[in-house]
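User: Hi! Is it possible to get a structure for several chains at once, not just one? Here's what I have:
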Amino acid sequence: MNKRTEIWDVAVVGGGHAGVEAALVSARMGCSTLLVTSKISALAIMPCNPSIGGLAKSHLVYELDALGGEMGLNTDICGIQFRTLNVSRGPAVWATRVQCDKEMYTKRMQQVVKGQINLEVIEDQCVDLVVSDGAIKGLICAKAGQLEAKTVVLTTGTALRGRTFIGKEVEESAGDRRPASNDLSASLERIGFNLIRLKTGTPPRLHADSVDWSKTVVQPGEIPPPFFSMQAKMFHVEQTEAGKRKKEGKKYIEIANNNNQSKGDCNTSLLASDRENCSTWNNSGAITSSGPSKNAGFNHSSLFNGFNLSQEQIPCYLTHTNPKTHQIIRDNLNNSALYGGSITGTGVRYCPSIEDKIVKFAEAERHHVFLEPEGKDPDWIYPNGLSNSLPRDVQDEMVHSVEGLEKATFALYGYAIEYDSIDSRELRHTLESKRINSLFFAGQVNGTTGYEEAAVQGFMAGANAAIKVLGRKPLVLSRQEAYIGVLIDDLVTKGTNEPYRMFTSRAERRLILRQDNARYRLLAAAEYLGVSHESAINQTKFFEKLVTDEIARLESVRDKGVTLYKLLCRPDIKYTDLSDKNKNIPQEVIDQVQIRVKYQGYIAREKIAADRALREEHIIIPDWIDYWKIPSIRYESREKLDFVKPVNLGQASRITGVNPVDIAILSLVIKKGRV
Amino acid sequence: MFEKPIAAIATPVGYGGICVVRISGPNVFSVIDRVLSDKMDSVSERKNGTFFYSTIYDCETRETIDDALILVFHGPKSYTGEDTVEIQGHGGVIPAQRLLDAVLKAGAQLAAPGEFTKRSFLNGNMDLTQAEAVCDLIQSQTERAAAVAKCQLDGALGNKIHLMYDQIVDISSDLEHVLDFDEGDIANNFVLKTVQRIDALKFFIDDMISSWREGELLRQGVLIVLSGAPNAGKSSLLNALLQRNRAIVHNTPGTTRDIIEESYSLSGIPARLVDTAGLRDSDNAIECEGIKRAHALIDQADLNLLIIDRHEMDQQKIDSIIQFFNKNKLILVYNKSDLVQMQVLDLPANIPVVNISALNGDGLDYLKQTMKNHLGITDDFQTQPVIAQRHMEELRTTQNVLSEVLQLLKSDLADIVIAANYLREGSEALGRITGRIYSDDILDNIFGKFCVGK
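Assistant: Yes, the chains can be modeled jointly so their relative placement is included. Here is the combined structure:
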């Protein structure tokens, strides 16, 4: 454990998915980091769905893993069922979804946090912020008193004036029996933040022994399991390839070794994990050898918990809603705490609750309900697909109308939670507040919903806080680079008045923002931060070269006069159908080659469209612009522009309520170079 | 641009009863105050839509420039949507320029071509198709072209496109919504329904595109070339169509040596009617040049009328002459039907044949009808054809992406992101027609074609 620093480089308030990532990345970048949480035993808990990933969220996790975040690895280790969604719809929307052992998830994360050098965790409640000269100076905690910090990351989740609603009972709580925080809300308001109230909800939990399993269909996990993390993939390849290699004469290792001979310091296989060099796989001895900025200390002797994922995944069970269920919901839409309104075509994007699905797809006679275990040997079942915010008696009636759940008993009713969040348009793209220097915000406090959305913001806020302390150039990912970029740009440009969830449809460059290529497209950013595993980075570079070489080979080799590249472009031809295959490249490389070749034309086309739309991104709005001195811009637009302070013309044009003529005027003022 | 008002002479250069100088934009009233008498109340005090009479002065020397009527418009109830003033002074090149100079000196800046209309578009007073119609209306050559432009200015085309835009955005957002759900969560018939909706939209777009031919004729006009052997009666036919004696008619073969071109309206479609030298072998250098030009025109023509003198023509002659023509753009006109009996000639199929007498006008109406049919000109003045190349290109883009989407959605491996991307492209293309989506280039291109002052 670190010795106590006088002034913390980075202080993180909140130990949810955002707080944990923020604290870990900052500590791994070498900054002395403090994590303040109300309950250490609740670090990174999963108060809602016991799963990570899903559509678009999966992309966030892969991106986070590529940058060096912890969520992907933690999920892989604690996963009990792995699946790929959307298989029939093309690689851009393939998504991984992993059921986790809920208990294990938080326990393993606690161990990682406790073992992380440069990181100290205290169980306390932050009640106030210390601000002077428009910059944050530290925190005041209920027990520890005043703590000084150069930067502060607030990841308060649902804690700020949290209130849960079950039926008509209202309770002051951050959910899952954690305390609400009223003082911090007051503190933020004193500083001048405008707080808004947001609501979110969670479905009921059912007792496992009250479900009639005979009426459901078993949904087994996918084998081999699709992992999120590069490390788990390497470990898994090592395991499954071990036997193969003995027979095949260590081909992979030879390729890898040849490629890396010159590096000297990394002469082991890039395909399998490098146990000696990876601190993650090590016991305490690794801390000194891998340097202070690496993550360290977790004992992986029981990686995957002694679980053989190829054989022992825990199945989910599938049942369906029916017209009766739908009628019950339709009759009670007005009583839905979260739904309340009606969908009017475009724009309304609720977390796909059962209410939403029933309105949007009115003709559908049934919807899937996955009964998901909350652990390896669960008492509770999470009925995924029945996410709702209906009153207690309606929940009873609705759940009992579903086949297999006729006699289900409730361990927990679905509830709604209401909490304070800031107006995320007050933030810069680094997630630093424009109002108070060195104060960062991440997660639900910014108006988002979801573990994955929280984790990536936590990581980016923590990384940028550390970067600020270290005096380096901020790391901002653009909308064209990552879903993380889309998420943050949306938050700081548009803000949100309902919990923001990541969706595929929010991205412009979704053919290139795939989960399969996250590690390749974010390689430069990962190297800049330097918190990823060296072996993973090296493997990415190595694979990238294999992919490029193989594509070049396909362009030069012909089959009956047609290049293999052209053949592979055809929709009905797979890599395995080619007459001249490269048998010495691993499956991941083959997959990359195949997807890149098949998508090439479409990606180019998408780029043209996106470039046209994003041309205004390149027109930077200079600092001297004073919107109040441009009378020809409408008053309401001036207000909005002045509040958001967009960095470029593209961002300005995305602000809700700023119209084209305002942008045209602004563009002219910029071109002229003066107001 | 937006803190100084813009000003320009809105009437044509030359002599006239009055000239109009139009000034629009912020501070326009204070600029006008400077060229009026100090004793007058500010123009800003005057009501929208009123006018008054005043002397106009040079704002510095206080020299009298002109006496004028001044019309006051308060934004957004003006052409541009901004505060606007129109000064009606005495017509003529010099008085108009003096008036404009006085206004510029008082703080206005010279407007770029089409800038008033561009502002009107940017301020949301009209969509891009309407703005383009302003230009078309000014430049229209026939009454029908003017009627179509006016119709477009009233929003007929814009409304149609807006409707399609709304539809494609609707389908697109539904497909995007599908992207946000797992495949198992979506009703199976959703894709089928989407296919049906796209089919319906595509039908609508196909229909608009089919109006392009006529629209193009309306915008660009048609070239109709009269040709034939010497003395077949080409010039007589030209005169008959024009209903006046334009060309010299004489029974000496080879009378017409140069090209004679006249404007002609074919059911409101502007046409260039060209009479050429008779096609024959000649030793005369001037006549040879005329024949050479005739051949060049025959190649360019949208429609060729090959005039044949029935009693001069036999199978061999017709075979030798018909080879010069594109058979798809040809009508055979048998002239002098009043003089001889019909004789049967062997002709390639599908070439329309019309018997006329240029002399007494027999068969002329039937000829006109045949020409219209051949060119695809209708007498339908009600529908709004697509006339601009720009609109056509965007419609074709939309048509293509919709075909791609349909093909994708009907296949087994429906890559839904690619389908959604295509729909985005389609909605952007339609959006660009009306200007819901625009860039500086599009605007410069469109408004650059305008005259200054509009």
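Chain A has a mean pLDDT of 83. The CA atoms of residues 623 and 647 of chain A lie 9 Å apart.

User: Great, thank you!
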